[in-house]
C-alpha cells in the first residue's frame, strides 16, 4: 500500500504539482474493498460503472468551470485529450481547452509515467482535489480514467478523493450476430462508444451465417450479401474503435453455418443429407448446404482463398474461424464421403477431419500475423482424437473457461445459459436465451486465472431477424453492464438492486442522468394487488425490473401512484418499464404524469400521452419543472381488458 501513497502524493507536470490527500493503510490485491478515509465526513466513492477498485474519500467536490483546462503531460495524449474535451463539454456544458505546462485549480490533468505496476496496461490512478488528475502507465489507462470522470459528472460534481482502478481480466466485451441480422454501421459505432463507457474492449462480429455473408469480398463478389459491410466501412469502423480502445474481432463461421456460401457455389458443400440438411432444429438447417465439404481439394482451396481475401481487411490481433455446430457423430457417421476420407487419412473419428482442418486454418491465420479464435465444439458430445492447436484462443461456450485454461489454452468465456443473449428464443426470465443480469451480477463466477483472457456477452439474432436493433439492444443492455462491472472486479454494491440504481444514474454517453431511487417513498396508491400476486405499489420504484406494481384485480381504471422523491429537484423526463415476466395485463397505454412541490398542489400534467405497446422501456422528456412529489396516473392499458395498471419500474431524470 505504500506504493499507492507514493504514486498519488502528487502528479508533476512541467514543474506543476497537483495536490492529493493520500490515505494510508489500505490493503492491495484483487479483492480490495472501497475504503473511506477516517472520519464521518469522508466522501463516498463516485457513482460509476464499473465500480472503482479502490477509493479513499476526502471532503468537498470538484467540477469543471469556466477557465478549466485539460493539461496533458505528454504530447501523445493530445488527440485523446481533444476528444475528451468534446465529451466533457457534452456532459458538463463547459468548454475546456487542451494545453500543456503548469496546472492550476479547476484543471483536468492527464499524464503517463505511473510507476504503479499493479495498474498494468489498463489501470489508472485518479486524484480529485483542486484539480482532477489521471495518471497511468499507458494511454489506455488514461482513457479509462477519463471515462470515470465523465460518468462521475452525471451527478453534477465529483467527490474529492483518490482512486486506484484496474481490471480483473484483460479482455471484456460482447459478440454481436450480424451474420443472421445485418446491423447498420451507425449501430456498431454506437455499441463501440457504449462499450468504452463501461471500459469494455473486445467487440466480436459474427460476420457470416446461414443467411448472409456480410463482408465485401473482392475475390468472390457474388458471395457478398445485399446487406453487407464494405471495405471502406470496415476500415472506418476499425479506426473508430481504435479511438475508443476497442478491438474488433471478425468471425467467418466455417465450415458449418455455411448455407450462404453453399448457395454461391453448391459444389463446395457436402451432398450427404446428414451434413447438408442436418436434423438439428438450428435455424437454416433444412436449407441445404449447411456444412462445407472440407474433404474436397476444391473446397479447401476456396476457403483458403476466401480467408486470404478477408483477413487483411482487419488490422486487429485476432481472426475467428467459427468451427461451431458441425453436426454431431450420428450425422457424421451417416455421411459416406466424410467416413471414407476419415479412414483414408487414418483419423480415429470423423470429427477429426474438421479439427485438423481448423488447425490448417490456424496456420493460415498465423501467417497473416494474427491469433486464431475458435468456438469450443470439437470435443462436445463427439468422439475425437485430434485436439485444436494450443495456440488457438478458444471461445468456451459450454461451461466455465477454467478447465480449458488449465488444459493449456488461452480462453474467452461466454457460457451458454449464462452469458448468451438470444431474445428470439425468450424475452422473460427463466427462458432459454434470456441472460438474467441478476445472475450475472450477483452469482456468476468470473474467475480470473492464468489462461483466462476474459469474458463476453454473446448476442445471437436467431428467430428474431425481423426485429429492429433497439429491440435486441434492450435485452442486452443490463447484462452487458453487469458483465462490465464484474469482470472489472470492484467490490459488489451488496445486491443487484443497488447495482441497477448505480447503472441508472450513470446512464449512457450524452444521456440525462437518472435520479437515484434511494430514499423514495410511496405516498399513496389507488390500489395494489397483494392477495393473488406481489403487486405492491412500492415495486414500481424498487430498482428491480422483475417486480411490478399491479392494480387490484377487482379495481378499474384509472389507477395511480404518488411518490415522494425525498427532495425538491429539477425534473425533465421519466422512464416507464413494462412488466418483464411475459404478461401483458396492465401494460400502460394512455397516462398522465404530475409533479408537485408539496404533494398537495398539482396543477396541469407535466407529461401526458400514450406509451407504445412494447416490452421495451420508454423514456419521455417533458418541459423541466421543479418538484418533490410525482404522481403517475394510468388511464388505459394495451392489455385485452383495459382494466389493469402495471409498472415494473418508473424512473425520473433531471431536467
Keywords:
655 residues; alpha/beta; 8-stranded parallel barrel; 7-stranded mixed β-sheet; 24% strand
Explained architecture:
With 655 residues, this protein is an alpha/beta fold. Helix content is 24%, strand content 24%. The protein is built from 15 helices and 28 strands. Strands 10-11-14-15-16-17-18-20 form an 8-stranded parallel β-barrel. α2 (78-92) runs parallel beside α3 and α4 (185-197) runs parallel beside α5. The longest helix has 20 residues, at 469-488. The protein starts with a helix and ends with a strand. The model is unreliable at 1-33 (pLDDT under 50).
The largest pleated sheet is described as: 8 strands, parallel, barrel
Class by SSE composition: alpha/beta
Biggest sheet: strands side by side, in what order?
Answer: 10-11-14-15-16-17-18-20
Q: Spans of 5+ residues with little confidence (pLDDT < 50)?
A: 1-33
| Radius of gyration, whole Å | 27 Å
Straight-line distance between termini: 42 Å
Helix content: 10-25%
Taken as a percent bin, the fraction of beta residues is 15-25%
Average residue pLDDT: 93
- Tally of helical runs: 15
Query: What best-fitting shape do the alpha-carbon axes yield?
Result: globular
What secondary-structure arrangement, pairings included, does this model have?
Layout: H1 2-8, E1 10-13, E2 16-19, E3 54-62, E4 70-72, H2 78-92, E5 98-99, E6 108-112, E7 124-128, E8 132-136, H3 139-152, E9 158-165, E10 171-177, H4 185-197, E11 202-206, E12 208-209, E13 212-213, H5 231-243, E14 247-254, H6 259-264, H7 273-276, H8 297-310, E15 318-322, H9 329-333, H10 336-345, H11 351-367, E16 371-375, E17 393-396, H12 402-406, E18 411-413, E19 420-421, H13 437-442, E20 452-459, H14 469-488, H15 496-506, E21 521-525, E22 549-550, E23 559-577, E24 590-596, E25 607-610, E26 618-634, E27 646-647, E28 649-654
Parallel strand pairs: 4-5, 4-6, 6-8, 10-11, 10-20, 11-14, 14-15, 15-16, 16-17, 17-18, 18-20, 19-20
Antiparallel strand pairs: 1-2, 3-9, 7-8, 7-9, 12-13, 21-23, 22-27, 23-26, 23-28, 24-25, 24-26
